[in-house]
Amino acid sequence: MKERALAVDLLRGLAIVGMVLSGYISRNPDLPAWLFHAQLPPPSFAFDPSVPGITWVDLVFPFFLFSMGAAFPFSIGRRLDRGAAAVQVAWTILRRGLLLAFFAIVLGNTNLWTLHEALQRPVAASLLTLVVWGAFFAMFIRLRNRSERFNTLLNGCGIAALLLLLLLYRALGVDVNLYRSDIIILILANVVVAGSFLWWLTRRKPGLRMGLVALLVALKLSAAVPGSWTAEVWNATFAPWLYHTEFLQYLCIVLPGSVAGELIARWLAHKGAATPAASAQPSVTAAVPPHFVCSVTSTPTAAMPLPDGQAAPAETSVSADSAVRIARAGSAAAVSAAVSAAVSAAASSASLSAPAAAAVPSPADGKGARPAAASHDAEPLPGRFRLAGALVLLLLAVNLWGLYVRALTANLLLTLLAGGAAAWLLRRPRTALQELLSALFATGLFWLLLGLVFEPLEGGIKKDPATVSYFFVTAGMASHVLLLATLLFESLRGRAGLLVRCGENPMIAYTAAGYVVVPLLFIEEQWGFSMPWIWGAGGCGAGIARGVVITLLAMLLTSAFTRRRLFWRT
Questions:
Q1: 3-class SS at 48?
Q2: What is the pLDDT of residues 333-360, one digit of tens each?
Q3: Fewer beta carbons below 10 Å: N end or C end of the chain?
Q4: pTM of this prediction?
Q5: How many C-alpha atoms does 157 have within 13 Å on its Cβ side?
């Protein structure tokens, strides 16, 4: 069966769309506080690090981090299982981090609002911003019908163009410097490098990986002691504009995400092996993890062209007896034991080893074919699994409410009740899909409860400065969103086309609003109808409409590129 990890795409799409929407809702003092970061409340919108609690806005960044970790078994594992040399894989990881860091610096220095303030010419500033976005496009795009040499030259031209544009911005009066960067992308650049290498090293040792999470937590908490050696390590940096050890705390979200990604990759491999008929639709093949079976019958599958112009390798298909062995290897007991070992870090010998990467191009990389509608019949699930999904949705709502209004006791009791009921409904899974749903719920509930245990520390759950509770609560919520997304696609035959396509092309979605949509609206305002709401004028309705309209236009633009299989390789 040829499949994409659509649930991961959907989670990433939700995160990216949430980032854009939250960034373009006008800061109207009359709007409710839950529409903004908990620590940037109206009416003053002044940052207050003492305010505990989270809103939906505080979830979008950790959801993206979690989805990035979930993509490791696909993006890195795929290369490893194709036999790529270790040096080549390492260079790919480092190159990705360096490009993201450069991207962050350019974003921080080419903001439309900053240029407009320096230039005071809306049309010129808008046109120049569009040129910058075009240079981004050249830097990241991989054209399928072009040679590797052509794509490399195109990417190099994009980088050169951006360097020249930075010089131009400086000449126009913008204070261009290395320390002005997009902090979100800069953190991503740091954790994608560290997280990729750590996942690689612990690919078949998930217990060790969870031990690293515990080590990070200990380092973070002990670093609060002034003058301690842990404080020195935590605050270390060799280049303040590029790296801070403190950035690595977000691995407490990324690494749990990798566990969820391994569960999904294992299920996709099992699903692909259990389906003898291959779909003729252009999509991506799920490879069979070699450690599931001792032997498989190797037959070439249809090669799938990737956005970088390379064809996916011929993967393995399995004989009937091999499929039986795979099914046995993926039994409920095996999956349950593996998940327990991963989340507790108690038994490093229990193997929830990362599967041989599915040949699903990494959504985090912005690569891969546009997901086609599932070519198989949706698996019928017992009603109790759908009821469990409703309870999981209730869990998400309860924790958002309870942590925001600080009803901590009620929140904990309701979490235990709803979580216990959902766990009872998800007991004794009988199919691979049921096992996946049960495992995603179990790991999510573990992280969520762990986060609630840590909640009283560090002044309560906070996004900035990020607390240990924030890491684990959001990781648990992200795992549960993956569960709901899997239910949506596999059982309810749901569709979330725009969100999925934004998740496949995340950096286009991230930049489309500020570098394409808003500049075009500026130009239209100068040459057509006046739209004061673009600048944040108007009442509460206009403030919300501003965010919705700009976000929807950015989503439609991203979808158009994704449909045409034009992906940014970030």
A1: coil
A2: 443 444 444 444 333 333 333 333 333 3
A3: N
A4: 0.82
A5: 11
The first and second tokens of residue 195, run together, are 């997280």
Q: Which residues contact 284 (CB under 8 A, 6 or more apart)?
A: 2, 3, 4, 304, 312, 358, 359, 360, 361, 368, 369
Tokens 């496949």 correspond to what residue? 504
Contact 308, 569 (CB under 8 A): yes
DSSP structural state of residue 311 = B
Distance, in Å, from the CA atom of 469 to the CA atom of 413, rounded to the nearest integer, reads 17
Query: Which tokens in the block code for residue 101?
Result: 């860091």
Long-range residue pairs from 543-549, CB within 8 A, at least 24 positions apart, any chain: 543/25, 543/26, 543/27, 543/28, 543/31, 544/25, 544/26, 544/31, 544/35, 546/24, 546/25, 546/26, 547/21, 547/22, 547/23, 547/24, 547/25, 547/26, 548/21
Are 254 and 471 in contact by the 8 Å Cβ rule? The answer is: no
**Residue 144 buriedness (CB in 10 A; 0-12 / 13-18 / 19+):** middle
**pLDDT at position 359:** 37
Domain boundaries, the chain: 383-490
* 48-62 per-position pLDDT tens digit: 999 999 999 999 999
Residue 275's pLDDT band, with cuts at 50, 70 and 90, is: low
Contacts of 513 (CB under 8 A, 6+ apart): 20, 23, 24, 550, 551, 553, 554
Residue 425 near residue 391, CB atoms below 8 Å: yes
Tokens linked to 493 = 């035959």
In percent, how much of the chain has pLDDT > 90? Answer: 67
Q: Which residues pair with 466 in a beta bridge?
A: 463
8 A C-beta contact, residue 381 and residue 411 = no
* Positive or negative: CA dihedral 478, 484, 485, 486: positive
CA 283/CA 272 separation, integer angstroms: 12
Whether 50 and 458 have beta carbons less than 8 Å apart is answered as no
CA 111 to CA 14: how far, in whole Å?
24
Of 123, 473, 153, 432, the residue nearest 267 (C-alpha): 432
Tokens read off for 300: 């070439």
Angstrom distance (rounded) from CA 316 to CA 300: 7
C-alpha angle with apex 480: 478 to 484, nearest 5 degrees? 115
CA dihedral 109, 114, 118, 124 (to 10 degrees): 90
CB-CB contact of 322 with 297 (8 Å):
yes
Q: Is 507 helix (H, G, I), strand (E, B) or coil?
A: helix
Calculate the CA 261 to chain-centre distance: 11
What does 267-290 look like in DSSP terms, one character per residue?
A: HHHHHHHH--SPP-SS--BPPPPG
Q: Computed from CA positions of residues 557, 563, 568, 570, in that sequence, does the dihedral angle turn out positive or negative?
A: positive
Helix (H, G, I), strand (E, B) or coil at 25: coil
How far apart, in whole angstroms, are the C-alpha atoms of residue 569 and residue 103? 12
CA 26 and chain centroid, separation? 25
Q: Quote the tokens at residue 49.
A: 């690090």
**What integer best gives the mean pLDDT of the chain?**
83
Q: How far apart are CA 353 and CA 27, in angstroms?
A: 46
Packing angle of the helix pair 86-109, 122-140 (nearest 10 deg): 180
Coil, helix or strand for 101? helix
- Token pair 């860091």: residue: 101
